[in-house]
Write a structure and sequence with these properties.
Layout: H1 6-15, H2 20-27, H3 32-41, H4 49-54, H5 66-83, H6 89-103, H7 106-118, H8 121-136, E1 152-160, E2 166-175, E3 178-187, E4 193-200, H9 203-217, E5 220-224, H10 226-237, H11 246-265, E6 277-285, E7 293-299, H12 304-314, E8 323-327, E9 330-333, E10 342-343, H13 349-352, E11 359-364, E12 370-381, E13 387-388, E14 390-395, H14 405-416, H15 424-430, H16 446-454, E15 458-459
Parallel strand pairs: 9-10
Antiparallel strand pairs: 1-2, 1-5, 2-3, 3-4, 6-7, 6-12, 7-14, 8-9, 8-11, 11-12, 13-15
Helix pairs in contact: 1-2, 2-3, 3-5, 5-7, 5-11, 6-7, 6-8, 7-8, 10-11
Length: 463
Amino acid sequence: MSDPTLADLRASLAADGAPEHVLELVDDSTDIDDALERLAAAGVTGPPVSALLDGFTPLLEQGCGPLDAELSGSDFLGVVIDSVAPEDLHRALTAVVSDGEATGSPEALAMARVLAVLAPAPVRDLARAAADRLVAGGLRDPRWVKAVGKPAVGECFGYTDPHGAQQGVALTFSYGRKVHVLVVLIDHDLGGGVKDCFVTDRPKEIRAGYEQAAEQHGMVFRVYPPEQARAIVADALDREPCPVEPDQVEDVRAHVTLLRQRVELLPEAPRTPADTSVHRLKITLSGSKPPIWRRLEVPSTIPLVHLHRAVQDAFEWEDCHLWVFHTPAGDYGVHDPELGHGDATAVTLADVAPTPKTRLTYLYDFGDDWDHDILVEDVAQAEPGAAYPRCLTGRRAAPPEDCGGIPGYDHLCEVLADPFHPEHAELLEWLELDDPADFDPAAFDRDELNDYLAAWAKVLVKP
């Protein structure tokens, strides 16, 4: 969409009789987005509708297709969503539709048709009704209207890195022979939200790039059933976006609305009891005396790679060594046929431990051999409104990384408890501690752990 310039915005506001202090807000802005934020903060709901409608003029041109219209509409909605408080969004969009319809212009019709496809559900019907009235009043719909929002669903594919930190998913769609793909980057280390999202008409190149990256960097490439792709991306959309770089921030703002609409087109897998159930696990560090353990509740459908992450958080490990789950169904970790390790990104906890009393082990750091005994204590329905994974309780601090396994940790505790031990100062320095009192083997803070888990926890049953 050809966004109005700051000069266009200022001219429209001046023509509508805006006071000088409002015009100064625009003068002090760096770009349109900045101006809209300043206007919203000052209580000015937004630019006059004439300035907004100017951005829809390209949608009236002969060569505009349905994807062009959708990209313009998604970008427009991204600006509006960024410019108003969430509780004001419905009111703001309703005003835009109403004010646009009042102009009776072709641009207003194009805007209404796009919003009828991409806007939040309550606004779609309002926009559709406004567009129908404009057509009844004598305007003609653009050629793209019959197809917009109805592309054919194509192949879905993607990759997951060996540690489950980042995941790429590509959703392919087509309008006739014109194919396009929405490329989505999900960052599980940053909460599992959308980190980047963009649209390209080169799905073959995207797939080849994914396959090459998987081969060169040990990632796993997959072709997803559309139902699975929908579940993955819908889960990411339910979480806070997590763009980092400026171009990612801009990409997500411009394309996330279109992504939501495309996800709605993918078939939805039927829900099963496992989708809303949780496993209660007691995880004990084998050989620890007194015992070091945590009791966690995690989604039954959690992939083992994410259970690995939960254990890392629970025991304050730094995820810098190899790991593997030994389960009744086989061994799973970073996929390695030579070691006999299956792919932990493709298997869920319910797959390998479906019932209470099932046991599995989690081995972290093949040198120090931190072996964790995991007992499934119960499988039950999730509590409404509760977010998982979560910690119920636990005992004692976890050993520091690279201290030599259980024998090394026992030695560490002994040395730090004896200020006259010849290794006392050396180990204090290694732990980067000034005072041995700062090292407390009995310490455990459930609330602090749950704060870590909350960054990527999810509500399974709405309250």
